[in-house]
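Lay summary. Proteins are chains of building blocks that fold into shapes, and those shapes determine what they do. In this project we predict the shape from the chain. Here is one chain we studied, written as its sequence of building blocks.
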Amino acid sequence: MFALAALLAQIAVILVHRAKNRTGSRPESCTLHTVLCLLGITAGWLAIGRPEITWADAPLVLISGLLITVEAAHATVRLGAPRWADKALCVLCGAAAATWMSSGWIPGT
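And here is the predicted shape, written in a compact code that computers can read:
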């Protein structure tokens, strides 16, 4: 599943960021990242054929596609990635998280 691969990659980025930056800082506003993640989830949902959203899938999609993705985007910025990388990560990982709603391993099956 695309969502599982994206989730593992995001967790790896977060762990590298936390290992390099042990000092705790005040959290920054992540409004842009949140909006981009929601747009990515919507685009992914449309791309896999608009499956029915159930209560079993929605929390998993929101946790992996929104909460973890916003944290990974923040870590990407702090690790010195190009200026566009965090925004691309939000949209692509949000879209990948939408595949949790698909019934098969490959969307559309």
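What the prediction tells us: The chain has a mean pLDDT of 84.
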